[in-house]
């Protein structure tokens, strides 16, 4: 049975999962026509191959650590850190330890405003 997405005004717990993290799976938390929030769970040594999404995204590390690769550039992303990626930015992840991240994606037309 699919887990329901949260509705408008509904509280969503995103605190660290701690020792229970290995029993959890990646889960979509919210999805609308313009926005999607996902709790991404990666166990140590697991990876997400290089990919890109059309809209802007943020990756917020809730616990653990991953190596974030942006082409030839790599950098660790640790608990308490957040990174913004413009739409179309190719990226990959390698879990350095059991990790959960909050991924926020802007969907739909005009997803990447590109303004600074």
Strand content bin:
over 45%
Helix amount, in percent? under 10%
Question: What is the number of beta strands?
Answer: 9
* Sheet of most strands: 5 strands, antiparallel
Order of helices and strands: EEEEEEEEE
Strand order of the largest sheet: 1-2-9-4-7
What is the count of DSSP helices, taking H or I runs of 4+ residues?
0
Q: State the shape.
A: globular
The value of Rg in angstroms is: 14 Å
Low-confidence segments: none
Relevant terms:
116 residues, five-stranded antiparallel beta sheet, 0% helix
Explain what the structure shows:
- The chain has 116 residues and is mostly beta strands.
- It is 0% helix and 47% strand.
- The protein is built from no helices and nine strands.
- A five-stranded antiparallel sheet has the order 1-2-9-4-7, with no helix packed on it.
- The radius of gyration is 14 Å and the shape is globular.
- The mean pLDDT is 91.
């Amino acid at each position: 049975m699919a887990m329901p997405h949260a509705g408008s005004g509904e509280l969503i717990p995103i605190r660290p999962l701690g020792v229970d993290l290995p029993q959890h799976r990646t889960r979509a938390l919210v999805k609308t026509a313009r926005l999607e929030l996902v709790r991404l769970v990666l166990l140590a040594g697991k990876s997400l191959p290089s990919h890109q999404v059309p809209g802007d995204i943020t990756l917020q590390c809730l616990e653990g650590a991953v190596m974030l690769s942006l082409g030839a550039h790599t950098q660790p992303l640790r608990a308490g850190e957040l990174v913004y990626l413009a739409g179309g930015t190719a990226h990959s992840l390698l879990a350095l330890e059991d990790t959960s991240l909050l991924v926020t994606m802007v969907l739909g037309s005009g997803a990447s405003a590109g303004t600074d």
